[in-house]
Design goal:
The chain has 277 residues and is α/β, with parallel strands linked by helices. The chain is 44% helix and 21% strand. The protein has 9 helices and 10 strands. Helix 3 packs parallel to helix 4 and helix 8 crosses helix 9.
């Protein structure tokens, strides 16, 4: 009886040992399979890698965008080695005319929908332009504001040398709209072809004041003094941006437009004094 009991105990232990070994082997296989699966998954990507951007993006942009777009251009080149952003800043109407005449450009950023329409009406843009910022007018005077300009009406004072943008330029059209809103008439000493030209007259003290954008007053720093006026709220300009039909590096151009519209781009533009779209 004792011998039979010992044999039964040994058999029970052998079966238990075999079961444990099988369980360990199964666990190891499962672990190995999971590891292989994890390795396979980590080595694959559900979305294809974005193509490397290259080439030069030529951007035609309103003069008031000079400082902020120059900053964004440098950032774009930093983010995408091998690319370059080349700018042509000026009056939106002149830039639009150049584009419709065949000037090589990839992106157009205008200071008003009206000047953008010059390009879209000729079917020279791809898709619908997108408004990316807005801008408001402000009076720029020489530092210290010696003529005590405090309102838009003050610009009509006799003997005051005032400069405006040409009426065909967005800042000039906006200034005229503001004057109309205030029921005012003003004869400037000169009409300038873009907002930087008007601002420069004040900086050089060739004019006592100019109606420009808030962003330009801010960019000038202490070289001019800004005077806000309520009529400017009636003449806020939307700024549209568009990819052009004959863009040589369309994907790179699209990426630049995306940067302008991104949170990062909007932060740069807001810091420059632009309003959100």
């Amino acid at each position: 009886m004792k011998t039979r009991s010992v044999r039964r105990t040994r058999r029970t232990l052998q079966l238990a040992g075999a079961g444990a070994a099988a369980l360990m082997a199964l666990s190891a296989c499962s672990s190995s399979s999971d590891t292989d699966k994890a390795t396979d998954t980590s080595g694959k990507s559900d979305t294809p890698a974005s193509p490397k951007l290259s080439g030069t993006v030529t951007v035609f942009a309103a003069a008031s965008l000079k400082e902020s777009f120059t900053t964004l251009g440098k950032e774009f080149e930093k983010q995408h080695p091998g690319t370059k952003v080349s700018f042509n800043f000026g009056g939106s109407d002149a830039l639009a005319a150049s584009i419709t005449s065949g000037a090589p450009a990839d992106v157009f950023a205008a200071a008003s929908p009206k000047t953008m329409a010059i390009v879209t009406d000729k079917k020279d843009a791809v898709g619908a332009p997108a408004t990316f910022v807005r801008n408001q007018l402000e009076i720029a005077t020489v530092p210290g504001n010696p003529h005590k300009v405090a309102s838009l009406k003050d610009l009509t004072k006799s003997g005051l040398k005032v400069v405006l943008c040409d009426k065909t330029v967005p800042c000039g059209a906006a200034a005229q709209k503001a004057l109309d809103a205030g029921g005012l008439k003003l004869t400037p000493v000169s009409y300038e072809q873009d907002v930087k030209g008007a601002l420069n007259k004040v900086q050089l003290k060739e004019a006592d004041a100019a109606v420009v954008y808030k962003t330009d007053v801010k960019a000038a720093g202490g070289k001019v003094e800004g005077v806000e006026f309520p009529e400017s709220a009636k003449a806020i300009n939307d700024y549209p941006i568009a990819l052009l039909k004959n863009a040589e590096h369309a994907e790179t151009a699209k990426a630049f437009i995306a940067l302008v519209q991104s949170a990062e781009g909007q932060q740069v533009l807001s810091k420059a004094g632009f309003l959100k779209p």
